[in-house]
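Re: How this chain folds, sequence and tokenised backbone to follow

Filed under: protein folding, tokenised backbone structure, sequence and structure records.

Contents: The amino acid chain and a row of whole-number tokens, matched residue for residue.

Body of memo: The sequence and its backbone structure tokens, given next.
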Amino acid sequence: MIDGPYFVLTVLGVLGTGVMAGVFCAFSTFVVRGLAALPPAQGIAAMNAINRAAVRPAFMSVFLGTAVLAVVIAVVTSVRWPQDAAVELLLGSGLYLVGAFAVTAAANVPRNDTLLRLDPGSAKAADRWTAYVREWTSWNHVRTGASAAAAVAYVLALA
């Protein structure tokens, strides 16, 4: 069983990855679907407003804080290599860092930036919006699954 600082780090890892899985899941299951049901100009404007609001301390501290925590857990685990749960700890960290953090940077943020530059009232907007919703949501499913799997890996490390 993990104890001491490993226990605290791992519990924080469970909380961070679990919260992020919930946020991503909400977007995949109903937020983006609701926005997609709006006329394209309104959906684009609403998603742009959400994306701007997301880069504030409340969300970013959990999103980035969990990434930093995953790095700390991975480094500490690699250096100390605890008898119990090393594989689960490294797996949880890798899942979040690659499947949530890196996917966000490589797939979701570039799509958000493109959407922000799109004129919501243009003729091209409706087609671009439909593609954005499909692509962004597909990558968001990856983030959801990776964050949830990271939380499970960290929970298994505690068992």
Summary: Residues 106 and 152 are 24 Å apart (CA to CA).
